[in-house]
Every structure is written in C-alpha cells, then in structure tokens.
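Marked as duplicate of an earlier ticket. Keeping the data here for the record.
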Amino acid sequence: EKPNTMYIAAREQGIIVSEDDGQNWQIITTPFAQTLDIVPLTSGVLVASGTDGAGQGFIVRSLDRGKSWQSVLTVPVPSTKKSFEIIKGDPDIASVVISLTRDPFNGDRVYAGSSLGTLFIGEQAGKVWRSFYTLNAGELAALTGAPPLAIKELIASPHKAGEVLVVTGDKRLLRIF
C-alpha cells in the first residue's frame, strides 16, 4: 500500500478509504451489516471483520482492493458446559472480532481479537486462521457465569516477534507471547 493511504471501518457504510492523505474519500462496500475493523497487508490484501444482520462475526479478505470479498473465518462461540436449568438463562452472546492488527515482522500475518476473549492468527495473507490464546477471567468467574474478557484492542509488538499487547474490556493491558 501507498504510505498516504488510510482505511477506516465505517460500521454500516463498510470501509472508507483515502489514497491522498485524507483529501478525498471513497466508500468500499463489504458483505457485512456492520464493518468493525480493517487492516491492509503488505501484499495488498485487505482483511476486514464485521457482523451479519444476525450479529454473527466473520472475517473476510479481498485480493482486489475491495471489489470482491472471500469469507475466511466464521468467528466461533466457545462451547460451554451447561448445567441443568429450570429457568432459561441469558441467550448465548455473539462472538465478533473487534480488533485486527498486522504483524510487523510478517506483513501477511494478522492478529485478531474477539469479544469473547479469543486471539486468532491469520496466515497466508489472512487465508488460514487458527485460535492461539483465550483470555480467562479465572476459575471463579467461570463458576459464577461472569462474561469472558472481551478484547477491545490489539497492538502487535514492533520489538519482539509473536508478542501482542491486548487491551481488555475491563481496562487491563496484557502481554501475550
């Protein structure tokens, strides 16, 4: 990508891009009802996260600057062991990827953080995905039914390969490596 190109995830409008330091903007449509984040890779591939109309989280990628999109990950909801319930509890929470960041040591690797505390790695320009860490609020939280630690922001370390800083929904900063 050109150094003066900027991308903004614009929720219902998709992605907004400027190739001239913000002087002019154009809209790129995405397959999402809401686009949550976007990251351009050094190969020119765009990787975006968002939700469909039902709130299901997805990650997609575009090889042609947003003209077409390929779904590469449906964000899984962690399975939890349910106990017997007389009164139905809260419905399952949707899992969405809130934050994407490119690995500074590998321009075709993407880190993604979900609302349910799972960190994912996308390899091969965002084509192949795997989970590599899940934040846990502790065993007491699991017993009391407290929600998992939501990931609000990811920062890939520019100093150490494979290290990611995570900002959680409860305002913690964690170092994962």
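See parent ticket for discussion. DSSP finds one helix and 14 strands in the chain.
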